[in-house]
């Protein structure tokens, strides 16, 4: 049975497999080759585009830009040897905890 989170797991695996792919034939490999600064720049650009789409209220553009942000975040995770499962695990940890309380706990740990 396919669930909506399956696509994120498959994409995470695909991105990890692109780590040593040819940058001439893979956009993801190009991002990996350029390093974290390039990946972070793309995340910033995509977030700015998502903000504009949200301000305009165009639902389809919000979906498109959200997809771009999520993709580039997954690339960053893969660059550092992480995956969507690491994020899911943290989401499960936070489930049922007040956002205010969770933030306070992180501030104490830092």
Descriptive keywords:
110 residues, 6 helices, mainly alpha, single chain
Your description of this structure?
- Helix 1 crosses helix 4 and helix 3 (36-56) runs antiparallel to helix 4 (59-79).
- Helices cover 76% and strands 0% of the residues.
- The longest helix has 21 residues, at 36-56.
- The protein is an all-alpha fold.
- The chain is globular, with a radius of gyration of 16 Å.
Describe the secondary structure blueprint for this structure.
Blueprint: H1 6-17, H2 27-34, H3 36-56, H4 59-79, H5 84-94, H6 99-109
Helix pairs in contact: 1-4, 3-4
Shape: globular
- Estimated share of beta-strand residues: under 5%
Count of individual helical segments? 6
Number of strands: 0
Terminal CA distance reads 40 Å
Helix content: over 70%
Q: Main sheet, how many strands, which sense, barrel?
A: none
- Residue stretches low in confidence (pLDDT < 50, at least 5 long) are none
- Mean pLDDT comes to 91
The radius of gyration over CA amounts to 16 Å
Can you write the helix and strand succession as a string?
A: HHHHHH
Query: Which structural class best describes the helix and strand composition?
Result: mainly alpha
